[in-house]
Each structure stands twice: as C-alpha cells, then as structure tokens.
Amino acid sequence: MKKAKAHFPRIRTIAYEGPKSANALAFKHYNPDEVIDGRTLSDHLRFSIAYWHAFRGVGSDPFGPGTIVRPWEKGRDPVSIAKTRMDAAFEFFAKIRAPFWCFHDRDIAPEGRTLAESNRNLDKLIAHASDLQEATGVKLLWGTANLFSNPRYMCGAATNPDAHVFAYAAAQVKKALEVTKALGGENYVFWGGREGYETLLNTDLKREQDHLAAFLHMAVDYAKSIGFKGQFLIEPKPKEPTKHQYDFDVASGIAFLRTYGLDRHFKFNIETNHATLAGHSFQHEIEVAAAAGMLGSIDANAGDELLGWDTDQFNTNIRELTLAMLSILKAGGLGAGGFNFDAKLRRPSIDPEDLFFAHIGGMDAYALAFKLARRIRADGKLDAFIAARYASYDTGYGRAIERRRTNFRELNRLVLSQLGEPKPRSGKQEYLENLIMQYLHG
Ligand code: XLS
Ligand code: NI
Ligand code: NI
To answer: Does ligand 1 lie within 6 Å of residue 247's CB atom?
Structure first.
C-alpha cells in the first residue's frame, strides 16, 4: 500500500510519560506496553474507537448543524471521500494506540439508492479497511448495522409493523454479519435503535417482541451458517430515540432472551450512559450481567448528571470507573469484549487535537481505575467484608438454604426451638465509603 499523507501531521504517536508529565498529548496512566500478570495493559483493556463518533460526528444537535469541519472531508465522490476518511481514522487509531475499532455499516460507506448499491459501496470500504487493519495491526472489536437513521426505520426495524421493513433489515444485517466476519470482528452488536414504541395506541407490543426474537434467531442461524464465531451482544438502552425501548436494561434483556430461548447466544454490551438513563448505576448493570454469566463488553462513556439524555461524554469519573472495574475484575474480565469509546466531542470542541485529548483522558481514566481496582482487590478488605457479611450461609442451615436442602417447616421449627430473634448487624456503608476514598485519594 502506498504511504498515505498524514491527516494529523502535527501529532505524533501518543507516548506514556507517567502521572507527573505536563504534556497534554501524553498518557499519564495508560502505558499500553506495561505488563501486568503476564499481559500488557493494552491486552487487559482492549480499548476501541467508535467510528461513528470519532469520524462521523460533526457536532450537530437538534438546534443546529455541525460545527466540526475535518480537512479530509473533501471531494465529490462519496466512496473516495469515505476511503480518505478511513485513512485518517486508521492514522488516528495508530497514533492513539487503540488496538481495536468498531463501526456501523453506514458509518464507513455511503448508503446507495438501492440495497445492492449500498452493498457494493460497503464492499469497497471493507476491502480498504482490511488493508488498513493489516498495515496498522488494529483489529475489529465489533461490527453492527445502522437500523435507525434511514427514514424507512422510523417505526423500528425488526419491530416495524410492516414486514417489508423487517425483510429489508434482515437483508442489511445479513450483509453486516458477512463483513464483520470478513474483517475478523470478535463480536457483533445489536443495539435496538428504534426497537420500541412511541405510543401503545398504535402498537401490538407482544407481536413486536415476537418479531424481535424471530429476527435475532435468524441472525444466530445465519451467523452459524457462514461460520461467524464472534460473540453476539445486546446493548440495552431504556429510551431514546423511542419513548420506550424493548431492551430497556440488562435485567429486561435477560428476561427477553430467556423467554425466547436466545440466552445461550448472547451477552451484553453495557453502556454507562444507558445504565444511568435506566435509573441504574454503571456498576449495577455490570453486576446484573455478570451474575447471569452474560457480561460481554463495555461502551465506555458517561452521561451528564443534570441532563436526561444520552450525552455520550468521555468519562473521567475515577470513582465510578473504579467501582465498575472492581465488578468487571470480580467477574473475570471481559473476555472477547473491550472498552469501546462510544463517546463524542462537545459541539465547540472543533480541533483535531480535541479528538486526542478526549481519548487520552478516557484511556487514562480506565487505566487508572483498573490499577486502583486491582489494588483494592489485592488488599482484600472489601471482599473479606462481604464474605463475612454472608458467612451465615456457609455452614449449617444457611448452607442448606443455599443448596435448597431445607424448607419452611424445618426453618419454622428451628426458629421456634433454637434461633429465636435475629441479632441486627450494621451494614457499615459509611465505613466502606471511607475505605474506597482512601484508595482513591490515599
Ligand atoms: C446509541 C448506541 C449506539 C450503539 C451502536 O445510543 O450507544 O451508538 O452503541 O449501535
Ligand atoms: Ni453504544
Ligand atoms: Ni448510546
């Protein structure tokens, strides 16, 4: 491949300079090459760049058009603009030292007038991506299909009242699975963009959920038929764009998957901002997925405490991230998943270097949180506290409860004859919060 011209000529590959560095374009906590437990930090964290935000985000909002103008967005032929944009993207991935990227089909290639034309455009960009992956060593964490932007999907894709739209979406996902496989994607994500409703006055909720399940079964079958081995992930979100989305949160996602016999085939891609929109903490969603053995991957971002929508900001809240990391480490890590920066620049952050600052901060925050969480786990105080709190289930009748070897009659007899009134014990929340504060600021 010929050496392309630099799109970020003034920015060199970001180096790790340590916590004391005053260089804004250096990592303070994320040293990708640092070896921890026999694996590099890069391998532990598996950071990924979201193509849609980093390279398709222009800063538009409902009150005005884009503000971000990139120098490579020039020319008349949309396919060649898309190729140059992708060159810039891979230059960025390499300079920011992200081992992975993620995309929607329509992020990387322009949609044509027909599905056949869209597929042809996509094939051209997939060939280009394949060359760039090869040249840079950057890999695909996951692929997905955009089933929400085009007006045909205004009432949903798999949950659309019109079977014609369902069929179109099926054809689009068929292709998206093929190209994700072609690029070696390690996962495939289903975010139900408009799989929900605006009003129950025009909605058959039961039929829509049945249709969504039928769609996912077809996707599982098709992936199997083409030998795609990547992990399927559901990305829950309670609302936005629709008023109510069927994949509301992890718990309702688990119920849906189990109801329709799909749970073996799916894990969850948990997004911080979606968790908080559902009225949960990020850590809560991780724990619920992990408890079901379905923790898959993370869409790394943050919402704004004062705003009620998906603001997709870069997360530098070390406390929130450390607690999340604690739960992820306890669950044994993300496996084939990773931390994908589903986060965008604020509308006035218009300089190319802002893209670097944003991701440097994000990567540093997760790396620091990872180290802090490891320290907390190594000290073992928190684990020991929790273990002691449940110790009554380790032996005797407590153990019998856990193993389902006792019943109401036996327990009734026990309470009346021996146990009597339970002795209250403090939950020690304030003590534990202080303990966490000591790790974070000690
Ligand atoms: C939108 C979602 C979306 C998915 C991919 O809120 O986060 O970006 O991650 O379709
Ligand atoms: Ni997301
Ligand atoms: Ni989101």
So the answer is: no
